[in-house]
Amino acid sequence: MRLPWVSIIALSVAAIALAGVVTLAFAYENLRRQMAGISSDMARLPGPSASHEHSEARLAVIRSQLSRVEKPIIVMGDSIVESSLLPPSICGHPVINAGIGGATIGFFTRYASLIIDGSEPELVVLSVGINDANTPAATFQAAYLATLRSVSSPVEVVTITPSRSPLIDAASIEQFNTFIKSLDSSYLTIDAAKNLTGEMTTDGIHLNRDGYDLWNKAVVHGIESKIGCAAVIR
To answer: Fewer CB within a 10 Å sphere, N or C end of the chain?
Structure first.
């Protein structure tokens, strides 16, 4: 029996409507999964200790560079490290500048292991702390030790550079440096702040050319000493 044309149209409309509902359902599920993925990724991004946009970009760059080298020396830190002109290699090992402007020790407590993951570094150098200047000493020390424990590779630590900025509590920096220099002897300390002054900065915080000349020499020599290669005469 043939269906009247009105019934055929009604069935066609119903089929189209059903197909639309199914399509919308699939689209909704796909969108839901995408949003869940974005939420998961955002949960891994750095907290307020460093800007999301900058730290996200820097983490991507650092991870990309690490994927292209073997047995690197990774120098982690804040803007003091990020702005430094580190040599491309030391003792035959590629040097990766893992400085991230605005980073605190808490940032590296959360992300040091993520940065290092799978790169099998020869040495990790930790140079951070000036952004923690107004943090209680006990909080800083606990986060510093937690960061060191999160790194399975050999670690070398660097003292915090002096400042002449009113935003930086000089007494806290001095206290932090005393703590850093008192760490277990397995963490060789580079006292990069030893010959620096607050006048060797561009804005009271970030090093100028003379400051970086001393800082770089101290860090490179400290790395050479830790690895055990012949020091370069400078």
So the answer is: N
Q: Which residues pair with 77 in a beta bridge?
A: 99, 127
| Amino acid residing at 146 | A
Mean pLDDT (the chain, rounded): 85
24 with 82, same domain: the answer is no
Please indicate, yes or no, if residue 12 is contained in any of the structural domains.
Answer: yes
Token pair, residue 52, equals 């999301």
**Residue 12: both structure tokens together:** 């066609």
Contact 232, 224 (CB under 8 A): yes
- Can you give the residue range of the structural domain that contains 140? 52-227
CA atoms within 13 A on the CB side of 204: 8
Claim to verify: residue 12 and residue 31 sit in the same structural domain: yes
Check which CATH number belongs to the domain holding 97 and give it. Answer: 3.40.50.1110
**Full-model pTM:** 0.77
Same domain, 40 and 56: no
**Side by side, which strands form the sheet with 73-77?**
89-90, 93-99, 73-77, 123-127, 155-158, 189-190
Query: What is the rounded end-to-end Cα distance, in angstroms, of the chain?
Result: 101
Distances (CA, A) of 24 to 18, 31, 36, 151: 10, 10, 18, 47
Give me the amino acid identity at 99: G
- Same domain for 121 and 222, yes or no, is yes
Q: Does the pLDDT at position 115 exceed 60?
A: yes
Binned at pLDDT 50, 70 and 90, residue 17 comes out as low
